């Protein structure tokens, strides 16, 4: 474990964290045990103290170690109970989906009541583009967001549109992360759900449009479990 540069140092810290986790799994240190000091660990691992600190920080973030000010570093768990980054990412995705539901279900209802002929053409065009872009993940997300934005615009409420547009960068990033977790996107049933939503807006059925929007987003949330 040697080398120069920030990328290599990060790699060294990752390796050091893996070695420490392996020793903890082997119960070299029991639950609640205090780890040796940074200098001792650095010598054992053949790395610098800064690398040891970063490795400890990583394992603390994953719930394996607990650093206590002035007392040292202690074993808080004998293994990683889950991929901690994935847990946090899923929690973030759920929050975004809940916010989408609040904005989009109301927008769908209003769109069904207020849509114009121009709005319906825009929604239909966006739906067609969405269907055509079902192979590349990021293109699919962009086409999907354009479709949902067309419905929000049809609600004729500038505050909802402003909220959606302000939310879009975070929303795009989160949807990409979600679909990478699920490793599947652009399926026939998913697209059919969007067609049903467009049909409800065109038919002027506010309750159905809101319900379909809510059900679609709830299915995304359920897919993370």
From TrEMBL:
PROSITE patterns: HTH_GNTR. It holds the Pfam family GntR. Keywords: DNA-binding, Transcription, Transcription regulation. It comes from the Bacteria. GO terms for molecular function: DNA binding; DNA-binding transcription factor activity. The keyword Transcription applies. Residues 10-78 form the HTH gntR-type domain. PANTHER family: TRANSCRIPTIONAL REGULATOR, GNTR FAMILY, UXU OPERON TRANSCRIPTIONAL REGULATOR. This is HTH-type transcriptional regulator LutR.
